[in-house]
Amino acid sequence: MQPARHPSPRIIRTLGRIYRRMSPTTNTPAQCSAAAASRAIGAMFFTAFGGAWLALGLLGAYGFRVAVLLLIGASTFALFVPSFRQFQRNRGAHAAAADSPESKREGRVFSIVNAVQWTLVFIVALVLSRSGCKEWIIPAIIFICGLHFLPLAVAFKVPRHYATGVAMILLAVIYPFMTKVGPASPIGCFGSGIILWASAVAALVRPA
After folding, report:
1. Residues 84-130: pLDDT tens digits?
2. Which residues contact 93 (CB under 8 A, 6 or more apart)?
3. What backbone torsions phi and psi does residue 111 show, to the nearest 5 degrees?
4. Are 85 and 36 in contact (CB under 8 A)?
5. What's the chain's Rg over C-alpha atoms?
6. Of 3, 74, 179, 181, which has fewest CB within 10 angstroms of its CB?
């Protein structure tokens, strides 16, 4: 009868690594990051609104296409999941920093900027609609959305928001003159969706 063979140390180490990856972990304060959680929140917003812009562009250009809408939905979900997981990993640090003066100031600025943004969107859309210029509503909204990133870049000290804002502003100004259909072109919606999705990815992979 042969003696029992024990697994080699290399196999044990490999199994240990696999087990640690599969097992839920509790992050230490050093591993957690309130900044990472904030970036994840931003990525979730970018992902959701980017998917909405892409879906709007699809509906405006090609009508209701179930397969393509499902593809956009699946892509949105695929980008949303890692953003949510990053937030979950750093949720404790985010909660701990929520009562700091800086976080409260950032929260107030965020609320004010977004309130102004949506108020402008409503007023501009109403004015353009009543003046017979409905086709200019989409580029106007894109311009306002891009503009609102600039004060957020200052408040949150995130230079990346400058790039997102300027890209959307330039898109709103340029795309109406790129095709014969003018501001009714779906390029505006598609471009906005792509810019926001790119911003979501950048928020996850870059620290600033």
Report:
1. 999 998 888 888 887 788 888 888 999 999 999 999 999 999 999 99
2. 29, 32, 33, 34, 36, 37
3. -65, -45
4. no
5. 23
6. 3
**Through-space distance between the first and last CA atoms of the chain, rounded to whole angstroms:** 64
The amino acid sitting at 207 is P
pLDDT in tens, 179-190: 999 999 999 999
Q: For 76, how many CA atoms within 13 A lie in the half-sphere containing its CB?
A: 20
Nearest residue to 39 via CA among 147, 144, 193, 157: 157
Domain boundaries, the chain: 34-205
DSSP 28-90: -TTT--HHHHHHHHHHHHHHHHHHHHHHHHHHHHH---HHHHHHHHHHHHHHHHHHHHHHHHT
